[in-house]
Amino acid sequence: GAFYATQDVCTHEHAYLSDGVVVDCVVECPFHQGRFDIKSGKALGAPVIHALKTFPVEVVDGRIYVRVTPEEAAEGSS
Ligand code: FES
């Protein structure tokens, strides 16, 4: 019933969390099974120790908006 947004690249190595598995509010990295809380970005144990960046999400008229700075948007496009 809610939407959350985090960075896609794992903080351990270069794996895409969008290729991982989500169970409840936890995403598991496809490389080494590091797990993160999607709501807070918190790393939930080894091998991941650094939290994910999270972004504010708003739903307006059925559209989902994710607030990012211009710098964060530029990082995502490279
Ligand atoms: Fe994600 Fe290692 S790359 S846990």
Overview of this protein structure:
- The chain has 78 residues and is mostly beta strands.
- The protein has one helix and seven strands; from the N terminus they run βββββββα.
- The strands form three sheets. A three-stranded antiparallel sheet has the order 2-3-4, with no helix packed on it.
- The radius of gyration is 13 Å and the shape is globular.
- The N and C termini lie far apart (31 Å).
- 13% of the residues are buried.
- The model has no long low-confidence stretch (mean pLDDT 94).
- Residues 10, 12-13, 15, 29, 31-32, 34, 47-48 line the site of FE2/S2 (inorganic) cluster.
Give a quick summary of the entry.
This protein has 78 residues and is mostly beta strands.
In this structure, how is the largest beta sheet organized?
Answer: 3 strands, antiparallel
Overall body shape: globular
Order of strands across the biggest sheet? 2-3-4
List the secondary-structure elements in sequence, H or E: EEEEEEEH
Number of strands: 7
Query: Share of helix among residues?
Result: 10-25%
Computed Rg = 13 Å
List the bound ligands.
FE2/S2 (inorganic) cluster
Low-confidence stretches: none
